[in-house]
Amino acid sequence: MGITKYSTYCLEDIDKDSIWDQFDPYEYRDINFNEISLTDEEVLRDMVAFYNENRPRGRFLEVGASSNLYPILAALPYAAQIDVWDLGAKNIIYLQAQCVKLDKMWQQWIDKLIQIDPKTYGRVNFQQQLRDKVIIEKSSIFDLPKRRYNNISMNTTAESITNDRNKFEEAVNCFLGSGKQEATVVTTYVGNSKGYEYAGIHFPAVYVEVSDIKGVLDPAMNLSKLDKTKMEFRPGNSLIMGFGKLREKQANKQRDFSIEYAHIYTNSSVGAEQLFTIPVLKKIKTRLEKKRKSFLSVVLVDDYSFPNPAFNYRRFNQWLSDHGAQPDIIFRESQLIPLCDEVIENITDEKIKEQIVNYIRIKRYPCSLFIAVWYLMRLGYIKTLLFDEKYLASQLVNILPISFKPYEDKALEIIAKTNFAGAEKQIEYHFLEEKALSKKSNSRNNLFQNNEITAENIFIEIPE
Ligand SMILES: C[S@@+](CC[C@H](N)C(=O)[O-])C[C@H]1O[C@@H](n2cnc3c(N)ncnc32)[C@H](O)[C@@H]1O
What we know:
Layout: H1 25-32, H2 38-54, E1 59-63, H3 70-75, E2 81-86, H4 89-100, H5 106-116, H6 118-121, H7 126-133, E3 134-138, E4 149-155, H8 165-177, E5 179-190, E6 196-198, E7 201-203, H9 210-217, E8 221-228, E9 239-246, H10 250-253, E10 255-260, E11 264-265, H11 272-275, H12 277-290, E12 295-302, H13 313-322, E13 329-332, H14 337-345, H15 350-362, H16 367-378, E14 393-401, H17 405-416, E15 427-432, H18 434-439, E16 460-461
Parallel strand pairs: 1-2, 1-4, 2-3, 4-5, 10-12, 10-14, 11-12, 12-13, 14-15
Antiparallel strand pairs: 5-9, 6-7, 8-9, 13-16
Helix pairs in contact: 14-16, 16-17
The site of S-adenosylmethionine (SAM) has 20 residues, from strand 2.
């Protein structure tokens, strides 16, 4: 490969207004990496163990590197090539210079790697490998290609480049989207950060805890490590590590958003409650299209609370289609029953678990449990063959009548007390006011008649 491969970057490309162009990698290096802190040593040891166990191969990514070389040094012997992306102009120059000649202080990091795992690192010519394997690009995380890399690494970047939570999540999703199926993932985040002053400039940050990191990583990957470092590098600030592998299939199948609308009970006719969700659905779709987000739409028919075998699924589907709102899938509530016990088993709060189990013993499965199951299934935390992985999404948007809110709140409370805690943060709502529904609901009953009995009381999968 050689040096020319990473010199495609040219000075004219530098965005002079970017605060990252003012980011001084030498100062950053002096503050953070001239000595090995106990926090970084802990991360380095875990990274080395993770690579040793998973032994990734092929094309690697390091995004937002700045002058932190240790994740790159740890990955080098495994990689055929490492693409290093950063937005800061001075960072790019620093990284290029290191590929030619490493700063002396990096030797202690190399020695540490050899000490931790002599077999992997003992015989490596780090300088040669940096020169041969590293390709540096001045590019943004938001422009990462889809499914390119076998190993992706991002350290203290997504939460440290913005104070906007949506932007943070978008950055993580762009990062995760750049991995191939089953790519290995190494990430670290500054926990509980409120931003930082550095060289006279205020740099933003999103305040994240372990549950936030779980919330963004879990939908896309199997986490083998999710933990804070035992050592804090500043009072109150640990590093949060999230290591693992992107899930098979989901890496390229999972949509960004799943939108639920037109919820209906089988004992009722289609009416205002369904009709008025449709303009909201269309508005959300337009908004997501503008943001270039992928999405699908789903409808849940409640055939459990008030069962009516005469409910005509085909006509309901036709009605939705006639209103320009054909869903990708119509699912029945009773199909969720086998998953209810799985969610109960995953409840970590014994009091809530007991309450639910007692309720089921005396009455039936509670609505709130069904809702929790419905959401955890759509987010991919629990699986059933009836709900193909192509219907999974990273984020849920639910358009529902406001009268549903107490049950929804209870469901989110249940989710927060399961092993999937954090998933509740992947759910948002558009509640429709009852007034709006009733004002125009004179025509609410019998927008179509339920007069045909059908054998189609299985879920309807809409052909693509
Ligand atoms: C806090 S530093 C993290 C440095 C380093 N990875 C570490 O572990 O200490 C954040 C880095 O992200 C880079 N950055 C900021 N916005 C970016 C973007 N949109 N895409 C890629 N990198 C970005 C900055 O230039 C900076 O180098």
